[in-house]
Amino acid sequence: MRQAPFIAVEGPIGAGKTTLSSMLAETLHLPIIKEIVEENPFLDKFYQNMDDWSFQLEMFFLCNRYKQLEDTITQYIEKGKPVISDYHIYKNLIFSERTLKGTKRDKYRQIYHVLTDDLPKPDIILYIRADLDTLLARIAKRGRSFEEGMDKAYLQQLIEDYDDAMSSLAAREPSTIIMTIDGNTVDFVENRMHYEEIAAKVKELME
């Protein structure tokens, strides 16, 4: 492990990525990079009509995440400072492979690789894995209006896509440590012991 690791927290919608990364940032005294979600002007339209608005939605996310990570390189990674992010930019491919089709998907893949192939990869990925019922309960609890009508089949497919993506990343980036957290049984928000076990493990991996 290098002296200043780059940590990413990942998982499907509702897994608790931002919550966990924020808690770890405070405990481990790390700067945090949070993805822009609610500011995306295409979210409402996307959930109403995925086919018509998926390309605009995915491009907005890609460009914003690219800019954030570009800034992260300058502010932290190049200076040898550890940092935690509540996403891995690879998530753009996870979502776009499901939402885009045909030539739009091909164009998006090309743009994605041009922008991201030379970006630094996380040293540690915390993968929060949870089943559909757990995710639906957490989504309902946080009460985002644009998520109220989310298709359950879409979310279930996303769970499976994330499992496949983590397997792919493990094969493609063998130096990256992927730590899987069982979101169905581990409650890092309500159970302090559960959280402290995660934090202790992450601290150990950073050393």
Automatic annotation (TrEMBL):
Coiled coil, from the record: none
Gene Ontology terms: cellular component: cytoplasm
Listed CDD domains: dNK (cd01673)
Entry GO MF terms: ATP binding; deoxynucleoside kinase activity
Record keywords: ATP-binding, Kinase, Nucleotide-binding, Transferase
Domain annotation Deoxynucleoside kinase: ranges: 7-206
Residues that bind ATP: G11, P12, I13, G14, A15, G16, K17, T18, T19, R138, I139, A140, K141, R142
Annotated active site: D86
Family: Belongs to the DCK/DGK family.
Descriptive protein name: Deoxynucleoside kinase
The species this protein was found in: Paenibacillus agri
